[in-house]
Amino acid sequence: MARRHSRPYALTRGAMLSSSKERALATLISQGPMHRADLARALEVSRTTVTNVTQELLADGMLDSDQGTALRSKLWITHAAGVIVSVVCRLRSTVVAVSSLDGRTTALRSATQEPYDLGGHRLTTATHLIEELLAQIGNPPVLAGHVAVNTQIDVLTGEIVGGRASKRWTGFNPRTTMEGALGAPVAIENTSRLLALAEHHMHSNGQAHNLIYVHLSHGITMGQILHGTIVQGSHGGAGELGHMSIDLEGLPCECGNRGCLMQYVDEQVVSTRASAILGADATVDDLVASANDGSRACRSLIADIGGLLGKALVGVCHLLDPDVIVLGGELARAGDLLIDPVRQNLHQRALPLNARGLSVTAASASLSETDVASAGFHILRSDPHHVSRMLHAISDRVET
Ligand SMILES: [Zn+2]
To answer: Which SUPFAM superfamilies has this protein been placed in (predicted)?
Structure first.
């Protein structure tokens, strides 16, 4: 996808960014649309100064405002300044979204994927979806992208180095691939950690100090949000809960170790155990539905899985001391049937200081694809490095 922005989004010489214009745009990018008076406070300048600066940006076409009186009017950044793009690769879908630089998601589209689709196929799908979305809004210039992939990835280089545990993505570099497609810098994240950030934004209005999100799916991945920020580890390898051993003499794992948690609570393992109760090809959804209908065998199986998960999470609590644990993925739809045994294990086994006040909940049922994309946009908008590159990209487009 070799993209060039179309003429309607060209900027004239008058749009040259002065330092005051840059500061105003940077504030709106990081904090979102705001009233002119609030912008003056954020910039610590007089209302007269902010009026002059914003009038220039309004004349440039990079800002727009509602019909309020001058200081009460709300300001936002238009697509003429550029847009940012989010890609979220999940087990059964690829979701792309486009947002204004100040975080207003303007378009979103998704495609169904098979769990075993290769990474290259997912990125090609994402590229086509982005092309369609951008065409709908007149092909504005893309200034940055955020890409979340459902595998372990080196967030610094974009490399997939996970070996057998990441075989569907082996040989692909999502960062360089999407930077080439977008013609813009791309930040990389693991999908489960992005879901953790989205849950953090939903949970208690983002007030959790140390939130752990556990995604129960094909593999078990954990995201930690500490004081509002994703904990990636040195290279992006943090959170591989599925490969934490709960039995050193246990079942062999594809990673080469024994007794990894995913060998006991992974979706495929749970489906196989559910099939022994419900018949061949039973899914996790079937298991949860039967348990909710009162099947004692299904409830017992979910409780057993909850106990194993709780056992693993005791170690997590001792290492990381969270105040909230959120369980997501298909199995988490079992709600308290799964969560109660997790809570019991944590209450019985964790040290008192770690267990006291700890909340364990299911993922927010209302969390939407837009919320997840917004978490990716939030990462770009709250990173001074990315904001600086966005401003440079705008300056580079000013006609000379
Ligand atoms: Zn393993």
So the answer is: Actin-like ATPase domain, Winged helix' DNA-binding domain
CB 150 within 8 A of CB 91: yes
Q: Give the residue ranges of the chain where pLDDT is below 70.
A: 1-16, 68-71, 162-165, 204, 206, 399-400
What domains can you pick out in the chain, each with its CATH number? 9-80 (1.10.10.10), 82-194+369-397 (3.30.420.40), 204-362 (3.30.420.40)
CA of 255 to the centre of ligand 1 (A): 4
In this prediction, residue 4 carries a pLDDT of 46
Tens of pLDDT, residue by residue over 195-243, are 999 999 987 676 778 999 999 998 899 999 999 999 999 999 999 999 9
Position 47 scores a pLDDT of: 87
pLDDT at residue 164, as a whole number = 64
- Dist. CA 261 → ligand 1 center (Å): 7
Interval between CA 369 and ligand 1 midpoint (Å): 29
Distance CA 225, CA 240 (A): 15
Bridging pattern class, strands 74-77 and 219-226 = unpaired
DSSP codes, 170-238: TT--HHHHHHHHHTS-EEEEEHHHHHHHHHHHHGGGGT-SEEEEEEEESEEEEEEEETTEE---SSS-T
Would you state the pLDDT for residue 365? 86
Structural Rg of the chain based on CA atoms: 23
Closest CA to 362 of 330, 339, 344, 380: 339
Q: What pLDDT does residue 68 have?
A: 62
- Residue 331 Cα to ligand 1 middle (Å): 20
Cα 325 to Cα 21, 94, 134, 189, 221: the distances in Å are 42, 26, 37, 20, 13
Q: Which distant-in-sequence residues (6+ apart) come within 8 Å of 368 by Cβ? A: none
**Complex ipTM:** 0.99
* Ligand 1 mean position, distance from CA 264 (Å): 11
Q: What single letter denotes the amino acid at residue 124?
A: T
244 CA to middle of ligand 1, Å? Answer: 7
156 CA to centre of ligand 1 in angstroms: 23
**Both tokens of residue 21?**
């214009």
324: DSSP letter: E
Are 261 and 246 a contacting pair, CB within 8 Å?
yes
Q: Backbone phi, then psi, for 146, in 5-degree steps?
A: -125, 125
Q: How far apart are CA 112 and CA 338, in angstroms?
A: 28
